[in-house]
Amino acid sequence: MNKYIKNILIGIVLLGLLICIFLAVKGCENNGDEQSEIPNDTMIDLSGYGAEDIIEINYTNQYGSFAFTSEGGTWKYKDDPALPLDQTAFANIITTVSTISAMRDITDEVSDNANYGLDEPKITLEVTYSDSKKQSYIVGDYNTNISGSYLKTGDRMYVSATSIGTVLDVALFEHIKTSDIAVLSADTVTAVVINGVEYSEEQFLESFMEKYSLVYTVDVEDYKNEEKYGFDSSENTVTVKYSVKSSSVLDDGSVVESVNDHEYTLRFVICDDIQYLMLPDDVVIYTANGLDSLLNIE
């Protein structure tokens, strides 16, 4: 065999190997795609009810045990119905609960619940429906390889595709409807009262409003427990007085202008460099930044 023919044969062999490697890699990619995509029609509905059918949920997570009930379409915290729940956000939670589903039933594959985190569950959930029926769920470990949590309801165990383990693994205060610090226009402010002392000089008000605009809430810290943070004993109060012009048209077509005076008060405590804030007509205690600067206006 001459050298020319030998080189051709070697080239053919190498080309064949490259083709085989390419097909093998492509096949693995296709198999991976097929495994990661689960058609909707193969999902197992574990609820069987709609969000409108749920009247109560009780669940336990790493933060404690909580119970919520629906009264006339409004969700309330059973231990304290006055807790200002964010109704829109909580309705989204109820929708998630009503759509709990599974990718597959693995009951026959399970020999020990401890291997799936079900002996020490991340979440336990009981749902009560309008027909008085109840359904319980236990959420175990999350498996990153299959992108799902192990879930048990009744005597069956599943791999769940629903994010219920994440949605319910939050503290109570995450459900509270929060308020924002009022945005005030500097040209409407007429005076500021800081811990009982009133200031109305233009330069002072300009400096104050610059610092006021930088104050912001960080997180919800607590609810109603004012004494714990010293609001009755060591609180600071800052009241911003401002005027808002308005006009109205009378029946005879004439325009009447008026000026309405308003006040907006921030109550806050600074303890160990942590700033706690309460806003007007709000029972929530926030952590905040920038409040200390309001006490040091030059």
Oligomeric state of the chains present here: single chain
Query: What is the helix fraction of residues, given as a range?
Result: 10-25%
Total count of helical runs of at least 4 residues? 4
Per DSSP E runs of 2 or more residues, the count of β-strands stands at 16
In which order are the strands of the major sheet placed? 1-5-9-8-7-6-2-3-4
Share of residues in strands: 35-45%
Count of individual domains: 3
Q: Compute the gyration radius: what is it?
A: 31 Å
The helix/strand order is HEEEEHEEEEEHEEHEEEEE
Terminal CA distance = 98 Å
* Main beta-sheet annotation: 9 strands, antiparallel
Instruction: Compute the average pLDDT.
Output: 86
**What is the molecular shape?**
elongated
